[in-house]
Design brief:
Keywords: Aminotransferase, Pyridoxal phosphate, Transferase. This protein has 425 residues and is an alpha/beta fold. The chain contains 12 helices and 15 strands. Helix 3 crosses helix 10 and helix 5 packs parallel to helix 6.
Length: 425
């Protein structure tokens, strides 16, 4: 693939940082290397000496004095080598990406660590999206995505979706206005980027079927588009086997995937990953070099030590426990919705994630209902309009999260919501 044609002028102009390259080189060098090159502070001057992190039902993560010095120091922009290596092995075992054995030029699978998947998304968008570009996504969508895309001055095009995600037939209709052969022409308006959340979408809870992914991927091939597979809820799928990913079917090297540990290990640690074709991931890393330099070494060390202690089997056992918790929470919310909202709203059971997308009957827009009247009833949800491309458009939906509240609180919240809807009708 000609990856250069996808890059914005800003991304194409980025050059490697010589000092950052020296940091990467020093990480791979033997202890006998004497370096007078770096401008890193001396860790002996830091006040932190060691730490022990207690782990539920498992081996503690211990940072002795030597490891603590490393955890508090600068590190390479791709991520600390042992964490990147562990995650590459995990991605290969979960997704078996065809690109794993490709040459770099052909789109070999590469990874980097980001400060949460949000940093990865922002840098991907700034790498690929020019002012005036047509960008495809299924709306409603994650408000953070809109916050990252809209200031870039692009034309965001909505592809209709339902509880099973983006509808390939509608995507085909949207793309029909262009000739696929125009995609290779300079200054063409054919969309070059398609963005989707394939599992447990925020806010809708929708999960795309494998068959739909196959159809969408084939359209991406026909029109030579890149697919951004934003999958923070991949590990919160309630039914097994988990649906195959776009990464698993990527024979061309056209999928950029973002993963997150926020939902399964810790949101505060801010650990995410970008996986995709090496020429594009390398460009993301050049942006990291010039902005955050690298994700916190301290949090990377903690996560890496935890994963090494667990092993892949231990990690997946932990995931099973997280899934069981959220499945139970989802079921509690569905039960309460059926009890209190059956006559005033409608919804589809989510197959992943932590959200229920509820359409209120006989109410055209939920903005004022939620932002003003709901507070009086002491119940708070998110009005659906904030997830639309044009947030001021009337929207009859609300998003309810089942991640934090107890089943008893969820039940009482829906009782109050039902009263609120009946009063407003």
């Amino acid at each position: 693939m000609n990856y250069a044609r996808f890059l914005t002028a800003v991304s194409a102009a980025r050059k490697p940082s010589a000092i950052r390259l020296l940091t990467e080189l020093q990480q791979r060098s033997p202890p006998s290397l004497i370096s007078l090159a770096g401008g890193a502070p001396n860790p002996n001057t830091f006040p932190f000496q060691s730490a022990t992190v207690r782990v539920k039902g498992g081996q503690d993560v211990v940072l002795d004095e030597a490891l603590m010095k490393r955890a508090l120091q600068y590190s390479g922009s791709y991520g600390i080598p042992e964490l990147v290596s562990w995650m590459k092995d995990l991605q290969k075992s979960l997704h078996n990406p065809p690109t794993a054995d490709y040459s770099p030029e052909r789109g070999q699978m590469e990874m980097c660590v980001t400060t949460g998947s949000q940093e990865g998304l922002c840098k991907i968008f700034e790498m690929l999206v020019n002012p005036g570009d047509n960008v495809l996504l299924d709306a409603p969508t994650y408000s953070g995505t809109l916050a990252a895309l809209q200031p870039l001055g692009c034309n965001i095009m909505n592809v209709p979706s339902d509880q099973h995600g983006m509808i390939p037939g509608d995507l085909r209709k949207v793309l029909a206005r262009w000739d696929p052969t125009d995609a290779q022409k300079p200054d063409c308006t054919v969309p070059r980027v398609l963005y989707t959340i394939p599992n447990g979408g925020n806010p809708t809870g929708a999960s795309m079927t494998y068959e739909r992914k196959q159809e969408v991927y084939e359209l991406a091939r026909i029109y030579d588009m890149l697919i951004i597979e934003d999958d923070p809820y991949y590990f919160l799928q309630f039914e097994k086997p988990w649906a195959p990913t776009f990464l698993s079917m990527d024979v061309d090297g056209r999928v950029l995937r973002t993963d997150s540990f926020s939902k399964i290990l810790s949101s505060g640690l801010r650990i995410g990953f970008v996986t995709g074709p090496k020429p594009l991931v390398d460009r993301v890393v050049l942006h990291i070099q010039a902005s955050t330099m690298h994700t916190s070494t301290f949090t990377q060390i903690i996560v890496s030590q935890l994963l090494q202690n667990w092993g892949r089997a231990g990690f997946l056992t932990h995931i099973d426990g997280v899934i069981e918790f959220y499945r139970s929470q989802r079921n509690a919310m569905l039960s309460s919705a059926d009890r209190w909202l059956r006559d005033v709203a409608e919804w589809h059971p989510p197959m992943a994630g932590m959200f229920l997308w509820i359409k209120l009957k006989d109410i055209k827009d939920t903005q004022r209902l939620i932002m003003e009247r709901a507070l009086e009833k002491e119940v708070l949800l998110v009005p659906g309009g904030v997830f639309n491309i044009i947030s001021s458009d009337p929207c009859p939906y609300v998003r309810a999260a089942f991640s934090l509240s107890t089943p008893q609180q969820i039940d009482e919240a829906f009782r109050r919501l039902a009263d609120l809807i009946k009063d407003a009708a």
